[in-house]
Amino acid sequence: MASFKSEPFLWIHLSGIVAFPIFLVITWFGLSTSDRLPTLGLELLLMVVIGILPIFLMQWSRPFEIFSLLVLAMKPDKISYQQRQILSLFKMPKQRILSAATAVAMVGILYGLYQLPPLTMIELPILSQLLDQFHILGLFIACAAFVGANLFLQVPISVVGVLLSNEQEFVKITPYPTEKITQDFTLAGFQVDHIIAIDPVSPQK
User: Fold this and answer.
1) pLDDT band at 195 (very low <50, low <70, confident <90, very high)
2) Can you spell out the DSSP letters for 131-156?
3) Cβ neighbourhood burial of 79 (10 Å; 0-12, 13-18, 19+)
4) What is the pLDDT at residue 193?
5) What pLDDT digit, counting tens, does each position of 110-146 carry?
6) In a domain, 158, yes or no
7) Whole-number average pLDDT of the chain
C-alpha cells in the first residue's frame, strides 16, 4: 500500500495556501474604505464574527472533507479504506489545537491589516474617491474576502497536521465509518462516484 502522504487530495488542498495572500490583499482593499478610528472596534468585531468564527467552528466540529475538487465531492461510500483512515486523522484532538491557534493568528493578522495604509493614502485618487463613497460595499468585500482567507489557511494547516502524522501509527488507525462521514464532515459540491485523474484507488470495504 502506498504511503498515505502521497494522497493527491492532501497536496491539492495544501496547495490552496497560495490563495491565502490573494484574499488578504482583497481584504485590505475592502478595508481601505474604513473610517478606521471611529469604527475600528465595531469593524474588527464584525470581521472576526463573519470572517473567522464560521470557518473555525467548521474545522472544530465538522472539518472540511478534503476528498473533493471545485464543485465535486466523492460520495462517502466511494472513499477508499486508506482515505477513511486519513479522515480519522482530521478528527484527532491535535487538529482542533491547530484550528484554534490558526484562528488566534488570524485575529492578529486582521489587526495588522488595519495598521497598513489605506488606499486613500496611495496615489490612486479616482479609485480612492470611489471607495470612500461606498464604505459599506468595501466592508462587505473585506468580510467576504476574509472568509476566503480563513478557509484557505485553515484547511491547508489542517492538512499539514495530517502530513506530520507518523507513518507507522497511521497503519493502526481505524478508518472513519462511512455512514458517519456526512454527519461529521463538511462536504462541499455535488457528490459523485469518482473524480477523474484524482482518485485512482478503488474503494475498499
Assistant:
1) confident
2) HHH-HHHHHHHHHHHHHHHHHHHHHH
3) buried
4) 87
5) 989 888 766 554 445 555 555 556 677 788 889 999 9
6) yes
7) 86
Three cell numbers written together for 203:
474503494
CB neighbour burial string for 106-120, b if at least 16 within 10 angstroms, e if fewer: beebbeebeeeebbb
* Domain assignment present for 126: yes
Cα–Cα distance list, 21 to 33, 109, 168 (Å): 19, 11, 35
> Strand order in 190-192's β-sheet?
68-69, 72-74, 190-192
Residue 143's domain comprises 8-67+88-166
- Ranges of beta strands (E only) in the chain are 68-69, 72-74, 190-192
State how far the Cα of 66 lies from the Cα of 14, in Å rounded to an integer.
10
**Domain-embedded: residue 139:** yes
φ and ψ of 156, to 5 deg: -60, -35
What distance in Å separates the CA atoms of residue 205 and residue 150, rounded to the nearest whole number? 35
Phi and psi at residue 89, to the nearest 5°? -65, -35
Residues 83 and 67: beta-carbon distance below 8 Å: yes
Domain count, the chain: 1
Strands 68-69 and 190-192: unpaired
Is 179 a domain residue?
Answer: no
